[in-house]
Amino acid sequence: MNECFRASNSSRKRYRVECGSAGSGKSVNVARDFILKLSDARFKGANLLCVRKTESSHLDSTYAELTRAIREIFGSSWQRYWEISRSPLRLFCKSTHASVLFRGTKDEAQREKLKSIQATEGKIVWVWIEEATELDASDLDIIDDRLRGELESPELFYQITLTFNPVSASHWIKKRFFDRCDADTFTHRSNYLQNAFIDEGYHRRMMRRREQDPEGYRVYGLGEWGEAEGLILPHYTVQCVDKRPEFYDRIAIGQDFGYNHANCILTVGFRDGDVFVLDELYTKQLDTSEILELASQRGISKRATMWCDSAEPDRIKCWRRAGYRAQGVSKEKGSVRAQIDYLKTHRLTIDPSCQALIRELGEWKWQRDAVSGTYTDEPVCINDDAIASLRYAIEGERKGTAPHAISKKLLYI
User: Fewer Cβ in 10 A, N or C end of the chain?
Assistant: First the structure.
């Protein structure tokens, strides 16, 4: 365990708020801490609820961290102590009968389910909210109200753990937990420099980011609160959108190709001049055939125009051969700024499932002049794969070349 988390792991306060940079080890530490406690007979009767905005994202985050912790702590004998289930996602400790459950808060139906969730034995006394900045304050209130009632053992205590990167100094989490003193709250800050297990390659990567993206390095390297100043697109709405194609005047798709960098596909709807982001397919280290299979499973439209990165003509041909209406985006001089201007002058609504886009928009900023300290008219081109997909998807609307509304039935998913 990293020494910097010792006080955090021993805290019994109701709110344990872990704010840290990428690579700080905060999520790894929380996962190990929970597995050790849930395996300990002193805490018999305790159960853990893991929460994220989108329930499906647990598989690659909380579930992955907790299962890795089980295998690292118990080694080759882990199956004597724990049961691991993927369908449904669930962990069960054989010695203490503790369960780990996984839920989301994407829509009202999921939030309602949180109010009545029960463990097989004992009570849910601990909650881990990973990527807590994805949630609304009202989501936390629902969870908080759930932790109540007398506990059978004096060893048990209610606690909500929040882990996140400090993406914005204006976020409600900072105002609620960091800007005021509260006897029920334990706050902790960490960064990758405090992680004793970080590798040299990651350290060099952070040094490159410090040079290329100083603002991003402050948040994702040093764990400092991100500034709202300089954001390119600060005004948009995150809420559940209508997924029915007939609701929109037109549907378009944007795709930014990538392998080590993410490959992102966004489905975007246009209605009465407003822009709606319906769906997001965000992958890394998958080849085109694998992404095509995922796109087919997701039901991504073969009738809507798919605007793609024109720098990859061979990939565009692959998507055309698969039946998609893929075409390259013309990258004329000033096109990125023109796309930004279009987005600034149209109301943008994003479905909560599009977490990569939401995350990237929260850190998409203008470059700052190193001498004057003022912002330039050029965006920082780091961690903008989903944003590039959004820029591509609006090309038909921006240039006025999208099919007329009378032909919109051809674009239905």
Answer: N
Q: Count of residues for the chain?
A: 413
Please confirm whether the linkage preceding 88 is cis (ω < 30° from 0).
yes
Tell me the pTM: 0.67
CATH number of the domain bearing residue 29: 3.40.50.300
pLDDT higher than 90, residue 155: yes
pLDDT confidence of residue 406: 34
What are the phi and psi torsion angles at 174 (to 5°)? -65, -45
Is the domain of 275 the same as that of 213?
A: no
Q: Name residues whose C-beta falls within 8 Å of residue 204's C-beta, 6 or more positions apart in sequence.
A: none
Helix (H, G, I), strand (E, B) or coil at 162: strand
The residue type at 306: M
**Dihedral in degrees, nearest 10, Cα atoms 141, 64, 54, 284:** 140
CATH no. for residue 288? 3.30.420.280
Task: Say whether both 216 and 244 belong to one domain.
Answer: no
Percent of the chain at pLDDT > 90 equals 61
Lowest pLDDT segment from 38-52, 141-155, 253-267, 351-365? 351-365
Q: Quick one: pLDDT at residue 355?
A: 86
Residue 33 lies inside a defined structural domain of this protein: yes
Residues 6+ positions from 85 with CB-CB distance below 8 Å: 91, 92
In a domain, 178, yes or no: yes
Distance, in Å, from the CA atom of 90 to the CA atom of 102, rounded to the nearest integer, reads 7
Phi/psi-derived region of residue 285, left when phi > 0, alpha when psi is between -120 and 50, beta in every other case: left
Work out the average pLDDT over 272-278.
Answer: 95
Which 3 state secondary structure label does DSSP give 111? helix
User: Could you tell me whether strands 263-271 and 274-283 are parallel, antiparallel, or unpaired per DSSP bridges?
Assistant: antiparallel
Is the pLDDT confidence value at 408 over 70?
A: no
Q: What are phi and psi of 328, to 5 degrees?
A: -80, 150
Domain that holds residue 398: 237-411
Structure tokens at 263: 């490959």
**Within 10 A of 413 (CB to CB), how many other CB atoms are there?**
19
Q: What is the mean pLDDT of residues 120-130?
A: 95
CB 389 within 8 A of CB 265: yes
Phi, psi of 13 (to 5 degrees): -70, 155
Looking at the structure of the chain, the number of domains it has is 2
Give the pair of three-digit tokens for residue 65.
């961290």
Q: To 10 degrees, what angle do helices 335-344 and 385-393 make?
A: 80
Looking at the fold, whether 316 and 215 belong to one and the same domain comes out as no
Q: Does the residue 226 lie in any domain?
A: no
Distance CA 215, CA 139 (A): 29
